[in-house]
Amino acid sequence: MENVQREGLYIQLQNYSRPYLPGETIVGQLLIVFNTPQEFKYLSVRLEGKAEVHWTRRVSRKSSIGRIHKTMHYRGVERYFLQRIKLLGDGSDFWSGSTQKLASGSSIHPFTFTLPDNLPSSFRSMDNVAKVLYLITARLKKPYFSFDILATIPFQVSGLLRIYPDKELIFVLEESRIATYCHSHCLGTGRSIRYKVQLPQRSFTPGDVIPMQVEVSSEDDGHVMDASTVASLSLKLVQHIVYRIRRHRHQASFEVCKTSLHPGKEMLGGNFLLFLAIPVHSYPTRLGGRCKLINLQYVLNFEVEMGHFSKNWKGTIPIVIGSGCGTTSASTQDFVIN
Fold first, then answer.
1. What residue ranges define each of the domains in the chain, with the CATH number in brackets?
2. How far apart are CA 17 and CA 132, in angstroms?
3. Which of 17, 192, 333, 337 has its CA 20 to 30 A from that of 87?
C-alpha cells in the first residue's frame, strides 16, 4: 500500500500486483485526503464480480413492404457476488439521513472481504464479446445536491483448475491412408502411408512446452519415409469459446500460438519433434471456475504437408490447460483426462 499526498479518495490493496484466488481474503483500506473538512452521509466500499456477454446477429425477414433487415442484440450477465461494506455513517441514500463531518487531513479506513469459492478467472475474449471482471468501488456520499466522491479499481482473480498429468497415459493418434506419389511431375501408383502423432500427456499449465512427436512411414515396405518427402509440419494451439444466453449460442475460435518445422534433405528418417510453448498468461480451461455464459476449451491443430503427395494430413487433439497457481484450497477444481 503506497502513500498518496494529493486530495481525493483512494483504494489500496495488499498483494494487488498478483491475482487473487477463490476463497482468499482481500485486505485493503480506503485513504481519504482533504485539506478542508468534508461533510458526508456515509463512506462505503462495494465489491463486485460478474461475467458479461454481448454479441450481435444480422437477420432478415419478408414483409408486405419487402425484406426487412435488422440487428439482433444478445446480452447476458452472470453475477458471482455483490457486497457493500459500510465503513462510516448510517448508509442512507435519502435526504432524511444524518450527516457527519470528516476532519481535514488524511484518514485510513480498513476493510476485508473473503472471495467466494469456484470463481472463474478474470477474462476478456479476443473479439470483445465476453468478459469476466472484478471491481472495487469506494463512495463518499455527499449530502443534498453535492456530487459524490467515487474511486474504482479492478482486481484480477485466477480460477483454480488442478490437473494430474502424471496419471495420464501417453496419447497416440494413428491413421493410414492411400496417397498418390508424384515425383518430377509424374503420378505414380497409390501407396499406403501411416501417420502417427504422440503426446506425453494432454493436460498442461501456462508456461509449459508441449512436445509432439510425428512419424510418417510407408506401410507397403514397412520403412520410415525419407524426410525430404515431408514438406512441412505445423502445430497450433487454438482457443474455442461457446457463449450461451439461455437457448442462444455463439461460437468463436482464436489462434493462441503456433510453431512449424520445415524438414530439409539433411534430416534423416521420418521422425519429427515439434515444440510449442504455452503463453504464461493463458486462461485455464472453462476459466477454472463456475461460468454458465462462457465455455472455453483448447485444442491442438496439427498438419503434415507432404510435398510429393496429393493430400495433407490434418488432425485435432483436445487438451486441458490448468491454472498456473498451485494451491490446496478447497475451491480448486479437479480435471483428469482419461
1. 8-154 (2.60.40.640), 161-335 (2.60.40.640)
2. 18
3. 17
